[in-house]
Amino acid sequence: MAKKKEVKSIEDLPGIGPSTLKKLQENGYTTIESIAAATVAELSSIGSLGEKTAQKAIEAARQILGFTFETADLILEKRRQLVRITTGSGDLDNLLDGGIETGSITELYGEFRAGKTQLAHQICVNAFLPLEQGGTVKESPDEISVVYIDTEGTFRPERIVSMAKRWEDFLNPQDVLKRIKVGRAFNSDHQMVLVDEVSRFAKEENVKVLVVDSLTAHFRAEFVGRGTLAERQQKLNSHIHTLQKLCASYHMAIIVTNQVHAKPDMFFGDPTAPVGGHIVGHAAQTRIYLRKSKGERRISRVVDSPLLAEGEAVFMLTEQGIVDAT
Ligand SMILES: Nc1ncnc2c1ncn2[C@@H]1O[C@H](COP(=O)(O)OP(=O)(O)O)[C@@H](O)[C@H]1O
Ligand SMILES: [Mg+2]
User: Fold this and answer.
1) What is the C-alpha radius of gyration for the chain, rounded to an integer number of angstroms?
2) Short-list 84, 132, 102, CA closest to 208
């Protein structure tokens, strides 16, 4: 059998000439992974290609990456390579079967001050720990990077420093700060553009964690009233689709935060529900509901996960970050 021509970059895919290549690159399609995860409609409109050509390029990319049916033993083998990032609390890690999983989307939802932003900061820091310590690093922290999309202006580098100091045997806070890229999103369009941008450098910079804090706040503020609800959900859906593609293509852990809104028709149980309804709910493999308890204590609950048992863990928010409740 003749040896296949080795394909390293998207210009080696069939049907992708120089002008198409330029258009694709300008739109963030820079890797074989991004083409494999694209739809025919997307690729043909962005790259000005015929649908057949787009289809061929996508199929070729999928073949290279093995995006077809897989046997379950191979899936299990791949899943073994996914890592879990410690939350900083052993009890919460146990609830999550080891921590926050790379290659999947985790939603943190809860009221104002429930600890969503703190936990998101903590995961960013902990990703820089060595694998054996609950991080994602094999040799040196500068082999990975983390992206934080801040929509509410609540990202604080000072918190990163305090949280990193806790792991002083393994981390230098300055090194961690240098490897976290922060994008401040001022509206939902801007937020979507920033997420699109991530695909440009995800592979090269080995992005292990992407935080979108908050996923829904801009959407909620901009689309007020029942009449615009469908439009909002459509836009949010497209945004989440981009996140799912990033997750599947680059095996990063994606953390999104979400507020809760009152459910006035609920008389029993907890009368709050995450914003964005089913669209957000179905996108996240793991949903963690956070709520306040006494003082700095917070209660976390895993909600409808395919793998994890439902249960609760209590942790504390401290200057040093997320720790077990004492
Ligand atoms: N430097 C700190 N030291 C200790 N606790 C802090 C510190 N900064 C914030 N917190 C805790 O985090 C809480 C805010 O949590 P946050 O993650 O911002 O909530 P959310 O994002 O869910 O609205 C504060 O009420 C406080 O309990
Ligand atoms: Mg917050």
Assistant:
1) 20
2) 102
From 111, 118, 320, the mutation candidate for ligand 1 (largest count of ligand atoms within 8 A of CB) is: 118
Q: DSSP class of residue 70? A: -
201: its two tokens? 């450098």
- Look up the pTM and report it: 0.83
Ligand 1 atom closest to 114 (CA): 22
Q: Measured from the CA of 111, which atom of ligand 1 is nearest? A: 22
Residue keyed to tokens 């942790």: 315
CA 245 to chain centre: 10
In terms of residues, how long is the chain?
A: 326
CB of residue 112 inside a 6 A radius of ligand 1 = yes
What CATH architecture is 10-65? Orthogonal Bundle (1.10)
Distances (CA, A) of 173 to 84, 118, 180, 184, 316: 21, 16, 11, 21, 22
Residues paired with 161 in a beta bridge: none
Which of 16-25, 26-35, 39-48, 178-187 is predicted least confidently? 26-35
Question: 140, 139, 144, 143: which is closest to 123 by C-alpha?
Answer: 144
Position 80 scores a pLDDT of: 78
Compute CA distances 37 → 10, 42, 202, 251, whole Å: 13, 10, 14, 13
Domain 78-324 grouped into CATH 3.50.30.10: no
Q: Which atom of ligand 1 is nearest to the CA of 214?
A: 21
At 322, give phi and psi (nearest 5°).
-85, 120
Looking at the predicted structure, is the pLDDT value of residue 275 above 90? no
